[in-house]
């Protein structure tokens, strides 16, 4: 996000704060049928469309810095391994041997020299080519050149690694991400490093989990004793590019900005900025660290949630830095996301069974939830 845009958003947030309201979203109440969260046919259609036709975030680039370092998929449905070949080129392969399909990499090696299958020891190079068939003489007429690992499109953009779930898909991230890519580049996401990553299963629909992030309406209540102080009288501005959504939330200190020169304004000092990177990533620019949350559906009411936290090395030096990072991670991950947002999402999911609501009613401050739902509905096949 460039400086002028940061200044414009901050001015916009100050004006909204005067009026005590969010930037207008849809301007109407929307009813979303609850079968969106329970119906296995809807999930099948989502998997066949939004989870097949679009680039997905695999993780931060620091996961795969050099030849042989690698990153494994968190979702068995698209079982990829991302690595760099000897030339340093990023590659993504299905983590499956071309002989009889055993899993090649399990995550127990620090660095790969080659892909060596644990079943019958076929060996593949880091570029995916089959280097050796064990007892080659037992495979007359089998041409190794036809047995390279199955490749998926992979690319780096904005400090993130992206894969396309369809081997024939194209990764044009410039046009896919639009202005959101400029933000990631200008925030220098590439230069950050990983602090920690967690992976857990939540008993709620993947969209219910993402939707907990898409409004500020709940903050003074659900986060009464945690976040609400930082966002007192918080207001939200938003911006969409394609199916992606950016939200900026004013923090409590935003009034102090009036005493300073706009030349020196930096949005993250006075607001948090959040992105839906469609379809399943929720990316957060906190004041001094970043959260990448990714949601992978397992069933209508079960979802893998991964949370990767990134930071700038210079901001957290030494032991004190380490302690500060641990504190931020515990607060954000355990207390707020898991203990408050997702706990309530699991409650809502369980209550869907007992049928008090055929639909959820979204008010004027919840319009972004409806926009997100609409982006999915528009793409279902
Ligand atoms: S399944 Fe990999 S070598 Fe047989
Ligand atoms: Fe929340």
From TrEMBL:
Gene3D superfamilies linked? Naphthalene 1,2-dioxygenase Alpha Subunit, Chain A, domain 1, Rieske [2Fe-2S] iron-sulphur domain
Query: What are the entry keywords?
Result: 2Fe-2S, Iron, Iron-sulfur, Metal-binding, NAD, Oxidoreductase
Stored InterPro entries: ARHD_Rieske_2Fe_2S (IPR015881), Rieske_2Fe-2S (IPR017941), Rieske_2Fe-2S_sf (IPR036922), Ring_hydroxy_dOase_asu_C_dom (IPR015879), Rng_hydr_dOase-A (IPR001663)
Cofactors (names): Fe cation
User: Which organism does this sequence originate in?
Assistant: Micromonospora echinofusca
**Record flagged with keyword Ion transport:** no
Rieske domain segment(s): 56-163
What is the protein name stated in its UniProt record? Rieske 2Fe-2S domain-containing protein
């Amino acid at each position: 996000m460039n400086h002028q845009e940061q200044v414009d958003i901050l001015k916009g947030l100050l004006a909204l704060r005067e009026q005590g309201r969010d930037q207008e979203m849809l301007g109407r109440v929307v009813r979303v049928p609850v079968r969106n969260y329970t119906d296995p046919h809807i999930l099948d259609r989502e998997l066949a469309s939004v989870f097949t036709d679009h680039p997905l975030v695999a993780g931060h680039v620091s996961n795969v810095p050099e030849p042989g370092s690698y990153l494994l998929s968190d979702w068995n449905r698209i079982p990829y391994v991302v690595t760099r070949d000897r030339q340093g080129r990023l590659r993504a392969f299905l983590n499956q041997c071309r002989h009889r399909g055993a899993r090649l990499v399990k995550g127990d090696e620090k660095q790969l020299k080659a892909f060596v299958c644990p079943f019958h020891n076929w060996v593949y190079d880091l570029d995916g080519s089959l280097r050796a068939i064990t007892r080659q003489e037992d495979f007359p007429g089998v041409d190794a050149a036809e047995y390279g690992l199955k490749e998926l499109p992979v690319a780096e953009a904005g400090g993130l690694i992206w894969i396309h779930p369809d081997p024939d898909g194209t990764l044009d991230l410039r046009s896919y991400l639009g202005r959101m890519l400029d933000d990631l580049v200008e925030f220098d996401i590439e230069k950050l490093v990983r602090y920690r990553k967690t992976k857990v299963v939540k008993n709620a629909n993947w969209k219910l989990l993402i939707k907990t992030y898409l409004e500020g309406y709940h903050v003074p209540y659900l986060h009464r004793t945690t976040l609400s102080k930082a966002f007192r009288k918080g207001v939200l501005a938003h911006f969409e590019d394609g199916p992606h959504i950016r939200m900026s939330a004013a923090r409590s200190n935003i009034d102090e900005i009036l005493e300073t020169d706009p030349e020196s304004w930096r949005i993250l000092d006075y607001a948090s900025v959040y992105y839906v990177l469609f379809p399943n990533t929720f990316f957060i620019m906190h004041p001094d660290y970043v959260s990448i949350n990714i949601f992978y559906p397992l069933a209508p009411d079960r979802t893998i949630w991964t949370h990767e936290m990134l930071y700038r090395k210079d901001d957290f030096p030494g032991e004190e830095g380490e302690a500060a990072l641990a504190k931020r991670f515990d607060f954000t991950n355990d207390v707020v996301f898991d203990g408050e947002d997702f706990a309530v999402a699991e409650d809502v999911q369980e209550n869907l069974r007992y049928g008090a609501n055929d639909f959820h009613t979204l008010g004027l401050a919840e319009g972004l939830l409806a926009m997100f739902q609409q982006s999915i509905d528009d793409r279902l096949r």
